[in-house]
Amino acid sequence: MTDVRVWTWPWLIATTLSKAVIAVVICLGLWGALPAVVGWQPTTVSSGSMLPRLHVGDVAVSRPVGATPPPVGSVLLFDDPDHPGRLRLHRFVRVDDDGRLVTRGDANANDDSSPVPLSAVRGIGTLRVPWVGLPVVWVRERAWLPLALGVLALTALTAIAAQSRRFGFPESESDEPDDEGRPGAAPESPVAGTAQQLGHEASTTQRPAPMSGAASALAVAALSGLVLVPAADAAFSDTTATTSSLAAATYFRCAKGVTAAVPYFWYRMDETSSTTTTAADSSGGGRTGVFGQAGKTAGATLACARDSGRAITFNGSSGYLSSPLIDTPVPNTFTVGIWFKTTTTRGGKLIGFGNSRTGVSSTFDRHLYMTNAGKIIFGVQPSTMKTITSPKAYNDGAWHHTVATLSSGGMKLYVDGDLVASDTSVTTGRSITSGYVRIAYDNLDGWNSAPTSRYFAGTLDDAAVYMTALSANQVDAQYESGI
Hints:
Layout: H1 9-33, E1 41-45, E2 59-63, E3 75-79, E4 87-95, E5 101-104, E6 121-129, H2 134-140, H3 144-161, H4 190-205, H5 210-226, E7 231-234, H6 254-260, E8 265-267, E9 278-279, E10 289-291, E11 296-300, E12 311-315, E13 321-322, E14 334-341, E15 348-354, E16 364-370, E17 375-380, E18 386-393, E19 400-407, E20 410-415, E21 418-423, E22 436-439, E23 457-466, H7 472-480
Parallel strand pairs: 1-7, 4-7
Antiparallel strand pairs: 1-2, 2-6, 3-4, 3-6, 4-5, 8-23, 9-10, 10-13, 11-12, 12-23, 13-22, 14-19, 14-23, 15-16, 15-22, 16-17, 17-18, 19-20, 20-21
Helix pairs in contact: 1-3, 1-5, 3-5, 6-7
């Protein structure tokens, strides 16, 4: 018969739980340390700037950035600009005017005081391993009591796990012969026989449990390996996206795409006061623009998330912006471009040339406007009216980037980086000896699908004019830098 020792059940439960805890410790330790083998960088979190999402003692693993700029909102591991020789894990929130990365801990109310260059970034936070770095924190902070308790707990668990064979269930004895050669016979004295058998097992058959030596070694090795993991002040999320929308981007910010194309003037619309009457020209040419006296609201969220600054919302009934006088003949090779966001069903002028700085121009040409249906039209009038129209509507409340070029290659209309319409037969516009660039308002009488409103109701950003025809690659690069 089978010898069942009821009193071994508590040991069975204890040893099983001990093995499970040790296995979890081993797995967490290896999960936090092994990514270093493939070039990823584990760091032990040493501050609570992400509480309650990330705790001191977690291990955060960052993958290399490579040649791909990180997307806004990603968690970055970078050299701490305020404490040389240390690392920091904080979220990338925006880019400042000098092209540096502005960061912030999710638990912090304000941005970090010191922006960092892209070259300081070590990696993008990708994986979080909870709690396993606590021994590392205790060693570095000289917290000997919790460290000692942790070591004692691990030692006790290992000792209990080692008893799994000594106090486990024995093999069935039904097939073992007794002293008289009878299979399955019970010993004469059950108590004595049990004691004798235990002594026999202890002296002749006991072997180290598989978990006793191996588990101890692996657990200590896994945790000891983490001691070499650098610490970082951290703000990390285990839901951080690991993809980047900038994989093929030429420019990291919209501002870089505009300046690289050398604009004649460029209104970023970063003004913070709704009552201001002037618009700064960021091209460096000093061609300060003039706003209408009312009808605008400054401080709207800008189109390009990685840029600094704001945008301006025009009310569709009185708000507009005009450039200073362009006192040379308006060329037949040029580009106009602008970001817009609207839900209007009354259309309006986006950007174009006119002979009046205020009010309604009597001569107007080379303009982009929106129809009541939300489609974008680019028009010129060398002798007769010529227009090209986008197939789709864009009054959907999202940001869009539109660019129009005229050159010896014809008329071209781009929306969101794509060429959506063209006419290679039209290479010149109306002769204009001098005039102004009008934004958000001017005459559109007589033009194809003329909108109900001459004023544009919506938010505008980064209005620019170039005295060259941008290439398709340049246009696409400008758009890609904004998404």
